User: What shape does this take?
Amino acid sequence: MNIDIINLIVSFIYQILVSIGYFAMFRKSGRKGWYGLIPSFRDYQMAVTVEHEEEGRTYFILSACAFVSNLIYVYYKEGTNLWIIFSSLTLAFQLSALFFGVRIFLAVCRLYNRSRKWIILWIFITPVPALIWGLNKNFQPVRKTGPQDDDSAAKESGATLNAINNGLTVNLTDRTVVDFFKKRYLLKDIHMSIPTGHMVLLLGGSGAGKTTFLNALTGYEKAKAEVLLNGSNVYHNYENMKYDIGFVPQQDLMRDGDTVAMTLLDAAGLRLPKSYNFFRKLERIEELLEKFGLSSVKNNLVEKLSGGQRKRLSIAMEFVSDPTLFILDEPDSGLDGIVARKLFESLRSIADEGKIVIVITHTPDRVIDLFDDVIVLAKDASRTGRLAFYGSIDEAYSFFDKKSMEDILRTINQKDEGGEGRSDEFIEKYAHNISEQAG
Assistant: This one.
């Protein structure tokens, strides 16, 4: 028999065996089995399954480039310049793809809680581990990684809350992106009403969608949603309302060579209406220096400030326009307990002035007495950010039957993140409550 025909038959059998193994593995993980039937695409989907999509995407592209390069170089006579170029390119693409393939399959080993030594078989004799892990009942993933196109995720509330006149009302249907030819849900079914004068903790594990949610609130990344602040639609009136929303990122955006006063003057030029003349801006700056305890260092360079002073200056920059909605991403990052406490007391005083203050912090329990409410975001079975709870601190303890925010977070985190993996349970429970509240 011709050697080429033999190679073709062997290659066909190889692909069939891999397809069978992948088909079964995807089914075990709660994903669609047919993903395993398409070469290269199945490796990308396997990367998605183990939450290494970036590596999977790169692997897919490199594999495709290697395939095309290989098709080209075989048509040229061996030893010619073009043959050398394309054969070298093929080797380079294959080696690069191998690097990303190793990272993907190491993640697969972790998903199935198996030794890293299996990587050798995954790379060189793929049908063997694929069939064993797919067909052997003793090989099970530590968690389901069901896709966003299945029906395994927590049920939605289908609610729409009535807007409140004094406060923030959010009716977010979903926030999606089209990524690598597919629609992905980042957030879904989030509904809440936050009265003015409330200081709110935003709690959620890694990947729960906290930053995406805040971007949707501010209008920076619009979602399929209605966001009303004191009755005005943020999306429809963005140009007029953007100064009524302040956002303080985790990393400050200040120039070390400027003084504190100059930094605030620049912020005033950007965030205050054009109707403010120079003297009104100076008056506002003096108010901020006094409010945030920076009067004594107003002529100091930013680079000479302490960590706590830098944080207060960063907050003052965003507060220059006197926003109604004030959002802060880990304002206590890098601060010790005493300094952080004083910072949160300042934020509490801002809320008491009739503002809405929303804060992300990784150490909520040390200042939890200063908060009115908590928003709990969690990933559902389809890895979409969902609302697991919104309400007062005491109601949150009762709802989750826990005594601390750290315990609540542990409850909703996935098991492979050191949590209890109960997010869907509480998402559905809260969705039911919201549905009844909406009537």
In short: Strands lie at 167-179, 182-195, 199-204, 224-229, 232-233, 245-248, 325-329, 356-360, 373-379, 385-392. The chain has a mean pLDDT of 88.
